[in-house]
Specification:
Chain lengths: ~350, ~400, ~300
């Protein structure tokens, strides 16, 4: 039983997996993730893919809002930019799926940097509202720039392929998703322990002081927007290649709220918090759907109440986490870890 | 974390369990995604009831040649991504031979996959042309005329009443709203009608003054609605009267509903619409009488069944008939091609007056009728005979 | 030639008048936002849902209980006061001192809960408001003001006037202004800041429900009518987040601009420009002059 955590040099202090214990359990997690598609049915794999996309998007948003303190109510717009970029590249100009992903990320990053410009002028509530406005404006563009986005009709995308191997069902796409999730989470984790990550956190905590210390606010705020939007773009591209269709309704304001809910419930300023939040906020509606099937059999008059009830539960989760556990699920996780670590002592 | 794992394990068990049970015997199965909540909920709730009623009536009368018809449905919330997810979930669990979707958008999104992967006979809460194109996708069909056909009925009616009139299209900013507009423009040109204005509004539009004033400025005489159910049609009709305009309003299937007449009140006579089905109060028709009797027995509190009910009712009747015919073919109804062949073989099929005897042509039923609102009775009166739109 | 110009001018005048009438209602909603923000520094993004709830409560009183309008109206106002008094201590008090993102998300979460509850109670069916105002439009020369808009405007102006009178002349109003100006000083003068917080939420809710009733009357009720609440953000940014006069003036400006955009630009872009206009205005103002026309410029002290 470890009762202390002593590091002897900076490298080990900064290590992502600080102990054999942690490394072991991460390995177990990885192995189960790899084995999962062989035991799960199509429906579970569908959920798993959706969770994967949510994780990438949530990690991106957390980098911007949790680590750099810039509130963005426009995340769905960046997801949409990435989604449409990928779809247009594939269907109009014959790009391969694999090339379209980083390009989609780049397109979103550019859009993000553009929308991030107000952050140099205003902050807090005003930035929040500015990103909200851009969310609606992008939505307008998605619907009305018909020559590119085909407006409301949307674009159909063929499934991605390597040679003759087509990733056209949930099981096969899972591998793509898993790959990008691991890549995204790993990169984020590394980013926050690097110079840029520390600069982000300084901007969040006291941006004027950070500026005095030599951190170029302009560069770091825009980078935060760009990187966060890159993640969003990748999420969007993956999402629409999975669903094989892009329509503007997939990028509504409600989606922004869902991602914000994920990082708040999961834990602001924590990569693993984003993962927790994404998993939790995707599974809860699924649970309620299963519940609704049962309710439908038992009490058909209640069937039409289940969906608004889902909304109430969603809103209730947001509000109660904010009031009772503002640090999110990751805080609960840390408490559990500490409990086991220090057992039988309670502190 | 613990709670989360617990819930995922339980749900995994539930889903696996149901899959196992469903795989046991492949009975005739219908899976539907109804817009039970959301903007189209009035249609979804009625439609779900209609489908349930037909399934129950069929099973009471012996099912599909003795086999019990299975039916499962989920709520798609009129959101495409939720609907598609629900469909995939239902398919994974129950492997239906026949499916029903919640919207034009979902139909367009799933269309290619239904053709290549799922191969279920499919219809939906839509009359989009894309779903009536057997050369491209033989599995999709419509239980009535396409929106384009319906526009055709309306435009021909206008051209007869006032040749060369100024017309406007007033449609919603959705797939449902935009679907027939391009074809509508062509048809208007061919009929010599002047399309002087196109007004667009969000479905929940609050402030429509600019659209109405635009129609006034362009001296519109006939305004055709597409993509709305009731809101904001009633508002537009009322406000245009306030602005001193004398426009005749017309609309396609989903707005030709009792709900709209209730809102129009004394202005009911201003609206003329197209529908493919008879109305619930046309008591003299045997098909209607059957529905009335069933409704009184099972849902004593329900006084009225809307056109949405009729549309889904008709679809389900066609599903049942296709199942019955395919069952007699080699390979039965589990072979997708048999269901398609069965559907396309339906000719002069008697549905008790809900529609004239049904003949499926190009995977749709191109028949419609114009109805006008009657302010005295607040009901629709037919103002034309059944029109074949070939 | 003169006739054509006169026709064009009368159309323009019509649009502007309609814009003013709509702007009155926007101003009322904006007033609700500002009242809450001024006192508690919270931007209540759930205003749209307050509006919807208020409209439905009034509708139920009218349609299900068949009460006369003035009674239904009073009940709706009482409901609004209760809403504010209940929500403030339950949800907003714990948020004092929390970072902006949490406060914003709490009001969004609240909005989602209210929307769900409204759906659960009243269902998704779109309903027409029973007629409560005389339906004849007002004619000013060639300009027509439909009755819904007219009465909406009148109600909005009346409510705003009542609020301004309360703030200027009543004890409660003075106390609220004092607390908004300097909490510490007000506390030391015996003003119960807690009560002021709850009261300002109630006032905001009152503004919201009245707008809800008015809009419900104009274009019918359903659970999505609250979406207009977000568009009103452009009004308060234009006017200044903490300026009552700014909210009222901003309402008119945005109302007119929006209707002009709708009439002249919509046909060019195939619709939708009218709905996006407030957001474009919003973005421009934040870039050029974030504190709006009359907002207090906060100087950050390190």
């Amino acid at each position: 039983m470890r009762s202390g955590d002593f590091k002897e040099n900076y490298i080990s202090d900064e290590a992502i997996f600080p102990s054999l214990f942690a490394r072991f359990w991460v390995a177990v997690l990885l192995v189960s993730l790899l084995l999962f598609p062989f035991v799960a049915n199509n429906h579970l794999l569908y959920i798993a893919n959706m969770i994967g996309f949510a994780v990438i998007g949530a990690v991106g948003l957390n980098l911007l809002t949790g680590f750099t303190g810039q509130i963005s109510l426009g995340h769905a717009a960046f997801i949409g930019v990435g989604a449409y970029t990928s779809a247009i590249l594939i269907t109009r100009w014959g790009f391969s799926f694999w090339l379209s992903i980083p390009l989609a990320g780049l397109a979103s990053a550019l859009a993000g940097a553009l929308i991030g410009i107000p952050s140099l002028r205003v902050k807090g509530l005003y930035l929040c509202i500015a990103t909200l406005a851009s969310q609606f404006i992008f939505g307008f563009i998605f619907v009305h720039w018909e020559s590119m986005t085909k407006g409301i009709t949307g674009i159909h995308i063929p499934p991605p392929a390597i040679g003759a191997w087509h990733f056209d069902n949930e099981r096969k796409f899972y591998w793509i998703t898993l790959f990008f999730v691991l890549l995204g989470v790993g990169y984020a984790r590394n980013l926050i322990r690097s110079k840029m990550g520390r600069a982000f956190m300084a901007v969040r905590d006291r941006d004027l002081a950070a500026e005095i210390m030599g951190i170029n606010l302009f560069r770091y705020k825009l980078s935060a927007f760009a990187i966060s939007s890159f993640y969003a773009g990748v999420t969007g591209a993956l999402l629409v290649n999975f669903l094989k269709v892009v329509v503007p309704e997939q990028f509504s304001f409600m989606v922004c709220i869902e991602y914000l809910a994920m990082i708040i419930v999961g834990g602001l300023g924590s990569v693993i918090g984003s993962v927790f939040g994404a998993v939790f906020m995707t599974l809860v509606p699924e649970m309620l759907s299963v519940l609704s099937d049962i309710v439908k059999e038992a009490a058909p008059e209640m069937a039409s109440l289940i969906v608004p009830f889902k909304q109430v539960v969603f809103g209730f989760l947001i509000v109660s986490f904010l009031i009772f556990e503002p640090r999110g699920l990751v805080e609960i996780w840390n408490r559990i870890k500490k409990f086991f670590l220090l057992w039988p002592f309670s502190y | 974390m613990v709670k989360k794992t617990f819930i995922s394990v339980i749900s995994a068990f539930l889903v696996l369990g149901i899959t196992v049970i469903a795989m046991a015997e492949q009975l005739p199965t219908i899976c539907a995604v109804h817009p039970y909540t959301g903007r189209f909920a009035f249609a979804g709730i009625e439609g779900a009831a209609a489908m349930q009623d037909v399934v129950d009536m069929t099973n009471e009368a012996g099912g599909i040649n003795g086999k019990k018809l299975q039916y499962y449905w989920a709520d798609g919330e009129y959101k495409d991504d939720v609907g598609i997810a629900a469909f995939k979930r239902l398919y994974a669990q129950y492997k239906p031979q026949v499916a029903f979707g919640q919207s034009t958008g979902m139909t367009k999104a799933l269309g290619p996959e239904i053709k290549d992967r799922y191969k279920t006979l499919y219809s939906a809460y839509t009359f989009a042309e894309e779903a009536a194109n057997p050369k491209v996708n033989p599995y999709l069909f419509l239980p009535g005329p396409t929106y384009v056909d319906q526009f055709g009925v309306i435009l021909k009616y206008i051209a007869k009443e006032k040749p060369g009139a100024n017309i406007a299209f007033f449609y919603s900013d959705t797939e449902f709203g935009r679907e027939p507009i391009a074809a509508g423009r062509e048809m208007a040109k061919k009929l010599g009608l002047k399309l002087v204005a196109e007004e667009i509004s969000q479905v929940g539009g609050v402030d429509l003054a600019t659209q109405i004033l635009d129609m006034k400025a362009k001296k519109v005489e006939y305004c055709i609605f597409q993509g709305f159910v009731s809101n904001p049609i009633a508002s537009v009709v009322k406000q245009s009267k306030d602005y001193g305009m004398n426009i005749k309003f017309m609309g396609t299937f989903w707005s030709t509903e009792q709900q709209l007449l209730n809102e129009l009140g004394p202005l009911a006579g201003e609206y003329t619409g197209v529908s493919a089905y008879s109305f619930y109060y046309q008591n003299d028709l045997p098909g209607i009488k059957k529905i009335q009797a069933w409704t009184k027995k099972k849902y004593p509190k329900i006084q009225y069944r809307s056109q949405s009910y009729m549309a889904v009712y008709m679809s389900t009747l066609l599903f049942v008939e296709s199942f019955k015919r395919a069952d007699k073919m080699p390979g039965g109804f589990n072979k997708p091609e048999n269901l398609v062949k069965a559907l396309q073989s339906i000719k002069n099929f008697d549905v008790g007056g809900l529609m004239p005897p049904v003949t499926v042509r190009d995977n749709s039923i191109p028949v419609g009728r114009a109805y006008r609102g009657n302010p005295a009775t607040t009901k629709f009166d037919p103002i034309s005979d059944w029109i074949r739109l070939d | 030639m003169v006739e054509a110009v006169a026709m064009d001018f009368s159309v323009l005048l019509q649009i502007v008048v309609v814009g003013i009438a709509a702007g009155g209602v926007y101003g009322l909603i904006a007033l609700g936002f500002v009242l809450i923000y001024k006192a508690t520094s919270i931007l209540n993004l759930a205003m749209g849902e307050f509006m919807t709830l208020g409209a439905f409560v009034c509708f139920t009183a009218l349609a299900s209980f068949h009460l006369p309008f003035y009674l239904a109206f009073i009940i709706t106002i009482v409901f609004a006061v209760l809403l504010g008094v209940v929500i403030e201590p339950l949800i907003l008090r714990p948020m004092i001192g929390e970072p902006v993102i949490s406060v914003v998300m709490v009001t969004i979460g609240l909005g989602v809960i209210l929307k769900g509850l409204t759906y659960m109670i009243w269902g998704p069916v779109y309903r027409a408001f029973p007629p409560i105002f005389p339906s004849s439009p007002l004619l000013l020369g060639t300009v027509v003001v439909p009755s819904g808009l007219l009465w909406g405007f009148l109600f909005a102006i009346a409510t705003m006037a009542v609020f301004i009178l309360i703030f200027k002349f009543s004890r409660t109003g003075v106390a609220m202004r004092a607390a908004a100006f300097d909490q510490q000083a007000a506390l030391s003068m015996g003003v119960s800041v807690r009560k002021v917080f709850a009261l300002s939420w109630s006032f905001g809710a009152i503004a919201a429900v009245i707008s809800g009733v008015v809009i419900g009357n104009m274009s019918g009720l359903n659970i999505y009518m609250g979406d207009i609440g977000l568009a009103v953000l452009s009004v308060i940014i234009l006017g200044g987040l903490d300026s009552i006069g700014g909210a009222i003036l901003g309402g008119f400006i945005v109302g007119i601009l929006q209707n002009l955009t709708g009439f002249y630009i919509d046909p060019l872009v195939g619709g939708g420009a009218k709905d996006i206009a407030p957001y474009v205005i919003l973005l421009l103002i934040i870039m050029i002059r974030p504190y709006g026309l009359f907002g207090k410029v906060t100087i950050e002290r390190v």
